[in-house]
Write a structure and sequence with these properties.
- The protein has three domains: about 5-95 and about 160-180 and about 290-314, Nucleotidyltransferase, domain 5 (2-Layer Sandwich), CATH 3.30.420.40; about 95-155, Dna Ligase, domain 1 (2-Layer Sandwich); about 190-290, ATPase, nucleotide binding domain (Nucleotidyltransferase, domain 5), CATH 3.30.420.40.
- About 30% of the residues lie in helices and about 30% in strands.
- The chain contains seven helices and 13 strands.
- The strands form three sheets. It has a six-stranded mixed β-sheet. A four-stranded mixed β-sheet has the order 11-10-9-12, with helices on both faces.
- A hairpin with a 2-residue loop joins strand 10 and strand 11.
- Helix 4 packs across helix 7 and helix 5 (about 230-245) packs parallel to helix 6 (about 265-275).
């Protein structure tokens, strides 16, 4: 199975995707609609109770055979059993994502690799031999320093998911953590200002600020339910202070807010954002992002990550 962010070496990306998270599994298929819009063609979700216990360091699957059976039933129910090619969004806690900034320019390519290896092992708390890592070079920061988006998962953990999908005869060409699947909705629908994704879970949140369709700030915060609002507020203060150079009133406005998952309501998240940044934002929904759902009762949050990956097929 290809590595994370493997679209560089595997150019095809299917319009079908699988989403896995603690307590929930989903399969989706999208089709293009008019303009830049798309339509949810087929989808199915299922409660998987404790079949997945997301962890970066520990085994994730409590019953691989039962998870395979659930995925097969979902594919059959959605009319996708003949589909063999998929993208996959992994549980948020299973992966780790960070942005590395190089303080100085390496003198050679070998020195660059040494620096990236050191930053990877330090940032993810594991040796490079234990990890499946992908890196993507980002735009330079305001000081002209090189930046890299790095995604890591333990090889032993990834092998668990690979074994389940291999048992079904399914081939996966793109694997990303949940928040980067969700983020595709903001990336594909660019805006004049900055965009904020708040992806919450039972153990905290990942906040990502996008500027010009590239991650500007990315931070994963582990916290309890009672700490969520304070930690989110600190994240926004960091963004606000960094976004307004000292001694100037210049800043790039925050123009879009996407709130997905647990930990905080969309309404409360938007209140905190507007109080901190002085904006008047409301959380965007499927319609704002160009996704046509079969009915208004369909839960966009439950399929946002895999559906976001499916948009990469065109």
């Amino acid at each position: 199975m290809p590595n994370l962010f493997s679209r560089i070496v595997e150019p095809w990306i299917p319009s079908t995707a699988i989403g896995l998270e603690k307590g929930l599994a989903s399969v989706v298929q999208l089709e293009r609609a008019k303009g830049n819009a798309c339509r949810l063609k087929r989808a199915a979700t299922a409660n998987i109770d404790s079949l997945i216990r997301p962890s970066f360091d520990e085994p994730n699957l409590t019953n691989a055979a039962q998870l395979a059976a659930v995925l097969k039933d979902l594919a059959v129910g959605a009319g996708l059993m003949r589909q063999k090619r998929w993208s996959l969004s992994l549980p948020e806690i299973t992966t780790r994502t960070t942005v590395f900034t190089l303080e100085s320019k390496p003198a050679s390519s070998s020195e660059l690799q040494d620096v990236l290896k050191w930053k990877t092992e330090r940032g993810f708390g594991a040796s490079l031999e234990e990890l499946s890592v992908s890196r993507e070079r980002l735009q330079k920061d305001a000081q002209g320093r090189d930046r890299y988006l790095a995604i890591a998962v333990k090889k032993s953990v990834l092998a668990e998911y690979e074994a389940v999908l291999d048992s079904l005869g399914w081939r996966v060409g793109l694997i990303l953590p949940r928040h980067l699947g969700e983020a595709q909705w903001l990336v594909r629908n660019g805006s004049a200002g900055d965009s904020l994704l708040l992806s919450g879970s039972a153990k905290g949140f990942t906040g990502v600020i996008f500027r010009n369709q590239h991650p500007l700030i990315l931070r994963t915060v582990n916290c309890g339910e009672g700490e969520f609002e304070d930690e989110f507020y600190r994240f926004l203060l960091f963004y606000r202070d960094r976004n307004t150079p000292e001694g100037t009133g210049d800043h790039t406005p925050l123009s879009r807010l996407m709130v997905i998952g647990e930990g905080i309501t969309k309404e409360r998240a938007s209140e905190i954002v507007n109080e901190t940044t002085g904006g008047h934002l409301r959380p965007v929904g499927a319609e704002d992002l160009g996704l046509q759902l079969p009915n208004q009762d369909f839960n966009f949050d439950s399929i946002a990550a895999p559906a976001g990956l499916a948009t990469l097929s065109w």
